[in-house]
Amino acid sequence: MSDKTILIAGTYDTKDDELNYLAGVIAAQGGDVLSMDVSVLGDPSRPTDVSKHEVAEAGGSSIQAAIDSGDENAAMQIMAAGAATKALELYRAGRIHGVIVLGGTMGTDLALDLCAALPLGVPKYIVSTVSFSPLLPPERIPADVQMILWAGGLYGLNSICKASLSQAAGAVLGAARAVEVPHRDRPLIGMTSFGKTVLRYMVSLKPALEARGYEVAVFHATGMGGRAFESLAAEGAFAAVFDFAPQEVANHLFGGLSAGADRMTNAGRQGIPQLVAPGCYDLVDYVGWQAPPSALADRPSHAHNRLLTSAVLDAGERRQVARAICGKLAGAQGPVTLMLPTGGCNEWDRPGAPLHDADGLAAFCDEIRSACPDNAQLIELDAHINDAAFSDRALAVFDDWVARGLVGKGA
């Protein structure tokens, strides 16, 4: 088994014993370690591979500036910026194959930035006293990060916290050895959806695109899925996107499960061709076992399961969503086609279904027509988004893009 090198990051002035324990477990399993100190005031018991001074300088500052700020939050943000920069630099140089970061609230704040800087597929583990806590906003959690609660580990080693630390050390090394890093032997298509019960186009589109020589990744647009989609779009990983489930835009507007303010923007910034449709535009998803957002408390809703409930927007709010979608598409640097299925945009809104609202759909369609930016081609379809006619037209648009050289041919 080939050795892998794991980056261990933390405040070595206060967590020296714990961080060295992690290194020892990894070494005992045959792995290598590269250490990074992100402390500000104190020093480690022995030099680390990446010093706190190097980290601060990578963040465009210095340890002295962090100290002189007189503010622990400002100081840690300097270190977070530097740690993220250095981690990515080390990964690109082939010096690390995974990362583990240890901390309380301060270290976890930094860890989220560090892990977010690394591409999807790089093993990332955070050992934290606040793992899975509501303190962690979903939009800051990297799409493929793993977390474990640092139970009983706020100060010093003991048998309780060693159980967490040793698991994390073994997990990140095992992941680095086992991971199949995404390859690029076929052009990649990014597609969003909300599950086969409510949006079904991927059932026919995925095999059709694969037959054309493309790889297709379908993202579950419930917050974290959208984060992963946007992360890859920002890297320029997609040859084209079929962004047919942008309800995370509405979620962000109305207090639901947000994928972040940059949802539906990164493909456009990278010039990636975008085929867009408003699947589930009329729904705001929220945590089913919590009270709905106050603005949506009295709305019709659908309990998808015990975890997720979707509230229905009224006509005025649907117009807001239409303007938001069009506003995001207006900044695109590549081709954009906006498909508008006037027969409905999710399985629950068909005539006779429990969330059908003909007036609300009409208001949304009217606003799309008014707000559609000049850089986007608008295609109206007298069909439902789950009808074969919708998928067939989407493929026809895509095939035209390939024929015109806007999208590279499949392998």
UniProtKB/TrEMBL annotation:
Highest taxon of source: Bacteria
Pfam short name (any one): UPF0261
The UPF0261 domain, residue ranges: 4-179, 186-401
Record flagged with keyword DNA-binding: no
Keyword terms of this UniProt record: ATP-binding, Nucleotide-binding
A single GO molecular function term of this UniProt record: ATP binding
NCBIfam families per record: PRK02399.1-2, PRK02399.1-4
Alphabetized PANTHER family for the sequence: UPF0261 DOMAIN PROTEIN (AFU_ORTHOLOGUE AFUA_1G10120) (PTHR31862)
Protein name stated in the entry: Tm-1-like ATP-binding domain-containing protein
